[in-house]
Backbone:
C-alpha cells in the first residue's frame, strides 16, 4: 500500500509465469486480486475490474478467496457509483461467507453494505449494517476491522451533526489503525477527523491533522486522496478568512481530484467555486463550472453534491448578470432539494434512535458477558459442597449489580435525553435557516418575473400608442386608408389585456379572485387598474398604457380608494402588498 509501484513490479514478474507454470489456482487468484487492488488504488477502475473478475474465476473452487475478491470488486463498483451492482456482489459474498461460517468475512461484508447505503443517502440502512458488523467484531482480535467500522460509524454521526461524538469515535479508530499499521486507512480517517474539528472550530488542530494526512498519503500515489487532504486545508483557511492561502490549497485540491476522475470532484469543485465567489473572481469560477459540466464521469456525483453545486453556480451566474442561467440552476437546485427531503422523510422518526444505538449495543455486549460468567459460576457451584450458599451469594451479588447498573443507566438516559433535546433544537434551527434561504431564492425569481412582465406590458402599450397615432392622422390617401384599416384589424385581433391578465395571474396567483371576493363592487376596469398599481407602475406609465391623461389616473385612483373604503395612500399600498 505504501509503495504501489514497487508492488506492481513484483506482480508483473509473477503474472508472466501464470500461463506456463503449475501454480495453484489460489496463488494465481491472489496475484490477480492484488493487481485489482493496485489499479483500484491508482484510480484505474476499468483495469481493476478486469483483474478482480479474473481472480474470482480462478478462485471458483476456493470459497474464502473468491468471496474476498468479490468484496473488492463490489468496492470498485461503489466507487463508480454503480450501487445496484455493488450490492448484488456484496450479497453474493455474504452468502459464501455464511456457507463457510466465516464471521469476520460476514462482518466485513456488512460494513461495505453500510458504505453503499451511505452514498445512496439511505442512512437508516447504513447504520443498521454498521451496527451488525460492529456486533460481530466486538471482542475479536480484529483491531483493523474494528477501527474501520468505528470510522464508518463516526462518519454517520458527523453526517447527522453530532460532531463531538464523531470526534471521539475517530480518535478511537485512529488509535486502532495506527496500532496495526494500516496507515492508508489511518490517513483517510485523519481527513474525516479534520473535517469534524473544523465544525467545532478547532482550526489549529484541524490544520495539523490535514497536513499530516497530505504528507502521508503522498506515499500511496493516490492523487484523489492527496487532493481531499488539500481540500481540507483549504476549508480551514476559508473559515479563518485567509482567502489567499485557502485559494492556494483549493487550486491544488481541484487539480488533483479532477485528474483522478474521482466521483468526489463535484464536491471539491463546489467548495472551490464558493471561495472564488467570495473573492469576486467570477470569471475564474465560471471556468470551473464549465469544466465540471464537461466532466466525463459526471453521472457519478451524488444528489447532495449536485444540489450544492447548482446553488454555487447560480451565485456565479447572478454576479455575471447571466440571469437566465442563474434562474435555471436555482430551479434545478430546488428540485434536487425536494428530492432529498422526500428521501429523508422515511427515516425522520428514527433519527434520534440512531444516535444511541452504538452505545446500546455496547451495553448489550457487556450484559452478555456477565450472563456467561454467571452461568460458569453456577456450573462450578454444583461441584462444591456448599452449593446452596454459593447460589445465594451469587444471587445477592447479581441483584446488587443489577440495581447499581439500573441506577447508572437511568442517570445516563437522562443525560442522553437532554442531549437529544439540544440536538433537536439545533436541527430545527438549521432547518429554519435552510427554508429561509430557499424563500429568498424564490423571492429573487419572482422579482425577475415581475420585471419581465412590467417590461412586456409597457412595450405593448408603446406599440398600441404608435398604432393609434397612425390611425388618427388626417391623410386621405387611399394607401394610407388601407393601412389604417389593417392597423384597426390588428388591434382588434390582439387582446393585450388578456395576455397581461394571464401572466399577472401566474405571478400573483389568487390576487384577482381575493380582490373580487373582498370587494364585489369593483368593475373589471377597476380590477385591471388595481393590477397595474400592484406592479408599482408610475402614474405616467399607467396613463400611457391606458391612453388617458395623468389627471385621469389620479382621479381613477381616488374613485377606487373610495370603493375600497380607504383614505390614505399608505393604507392602500398596504392592502395591495398583503393581498
Residues:
Amino acid at each position: 500500500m505504501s509503495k504501489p509501484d514497487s508492488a506492481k513490479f513484483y506482480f508483473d514478474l509473477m503474472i508472466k509465469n501464470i500461463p506456463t507454470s503449475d501454480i495453484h489456482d489460489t496463488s494465481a487468484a491472489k496475484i490477480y486480486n492484488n493487481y485489482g487492488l493496485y489499479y483500484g488504488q491508482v484510480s484505474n477502475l476499468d483495469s481493476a475490474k478486469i483483474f478482480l473478475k479474473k481472480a474470482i474465476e480462478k478462485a471458483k473452487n476456493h470459497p474464502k478467496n473468491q468471496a474476498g475478491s468479490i468484496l473488492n470488486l463490489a468496492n470498485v463498483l461503489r466507487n463508480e457509483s454503480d450501487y445496484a451492482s455493488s450490492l448484488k456482489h456484496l450479497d453474493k459474498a455474504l452468502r459464501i461467507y455464511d456457507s463457510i461460517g466465516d464471521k469476520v468475512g460476514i462482518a466485513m461484508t456488512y460494513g461495505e453494505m453500510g458504505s453503499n447505503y451511505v452514498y445512496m443517502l439511505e442512512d437508516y440502512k447504513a447504520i443498521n449494517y454498521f451496527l451488525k458488523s460492529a456486533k460481530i467484531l466486538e471482542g475479536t482480535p480484529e483491531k483493523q476491522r474494528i477501527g474501520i467500522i468505528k470510522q464508518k460509524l463516526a462518519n454517520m454521526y458527523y453526517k447527522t451533526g453530532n460532531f463531538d461524538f464523531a470526534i471521539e469515535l475517530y480518535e478511537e479508530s485512529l488509535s486502532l489503525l495506527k496500532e496495526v499499521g494500516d496507515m492508508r486507512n489511518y490517513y483517510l480517517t485523519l481527513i474525516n477527523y479534520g473535517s469534524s474539528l473544523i465544525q467545532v472550530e478547532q482550526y489549529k488542530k484541524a490544520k495539523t491533522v490535514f497536513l499530516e494526512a497530505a504528507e502521508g498519503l503522498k506515499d500511496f500515489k493516490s492523487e484523489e486522496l492527496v487532493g481531499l487532504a488539500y481540500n481540507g486545508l483549504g476549508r480551514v483557511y476559508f473559515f479563518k478568512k485567509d482567502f489567499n492561502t485557502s485559494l492556494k490549497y483549493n487550486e491544488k485540491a481541484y487539480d488533483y481530484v479532477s485528474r483522478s476522475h474521482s466521483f468526489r470532484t463535484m464536491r471539491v469543485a463546489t467548495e472551490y467555486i464558493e471561495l472564488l465567489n467570495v473573492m469576486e473572481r467570477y470569471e475564474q469560477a465560471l471556468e470551473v463550472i464549465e469544466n465540471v459540466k464537461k466532466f466525463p464521469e459526471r453521472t457519478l456525483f451524488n444528489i447532495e453534491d449536485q444540489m450544492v453545486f447548482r446553488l454555487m453556480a447560480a451565485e456565479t451566474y447572478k454576479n455575471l448578470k447571466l440571469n437566465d442561467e442563474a434562474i435555471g440552476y436555482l430551479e434545478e437546485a430546488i428540485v434536487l432539494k425536494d428530492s432529498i427531503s422526500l428521501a429523508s422523510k422515511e427515516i425522520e422518526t428514527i433519527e434520534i434512535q440512531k444516535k444511541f444505538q452504538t452505545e446500546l449495543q455496547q451495553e448489550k455486549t457487556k450484559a452478555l458477558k456477565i450472563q456467561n460468567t454467571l452461568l460458569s459460576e453456577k456450573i462450578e457451584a454444583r461441584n462444591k459442597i456448599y452449593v446452596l450458599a454459593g447460589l445465594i451469594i451469587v444471587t445477592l451479588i447479581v441483584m446488587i449489580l443489577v440495581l447499581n447498573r439500573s441506577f447508572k443507566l437511568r442517570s445516563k438516559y437522562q443525560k442522553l435525553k437532554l442531549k437529544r433535546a439540544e440536538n433537536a433544537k439545533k436541527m430545527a434551527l438549521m432547518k429554519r435557516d435552510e427554508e429561509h434561504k430557499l424563500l429568498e431564492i424564490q423571492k429573487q425569481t419572482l422579482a425577475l418575473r415581475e420585471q419581465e412582465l412590467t417590461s412586456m406590458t409597457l412595450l405593448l402599450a408603446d406599440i398600441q400608442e404608435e398604432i393609434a397615432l397612425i390611425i388618427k392622422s388626417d391623410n386621405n390617401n387611399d394607401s394610407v386608408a388601407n393601412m389604417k384599416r389593417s392597423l384597426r384589424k390588428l388591434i382588434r385581433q390582439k387582446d393585450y389585456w388578456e395576455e397581461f391578465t394571464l401572466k399577472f395571474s401566474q405571478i400573483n396567483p389568487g390576487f384577482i379572485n381575493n380582490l373580487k371576493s373582498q370587494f364585489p363592487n369593483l368593475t373589471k376596469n377597476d380590477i385591471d387598474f388595481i393590477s397595474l398599481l400592484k406592479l408599482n407602475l408610475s402614474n405616467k406609465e399607467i396613463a400611457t398604457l391606458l391612453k388617458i391623461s395623468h389627471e385621469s389616473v389620479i382621479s381613477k385612483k381616488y374613485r377606487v380608494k373610495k370603493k375600497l373604503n380607504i383614505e390614505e395612500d399608505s393604507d392602500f399600498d398596504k392592502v395591495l402588498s398583503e393581498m
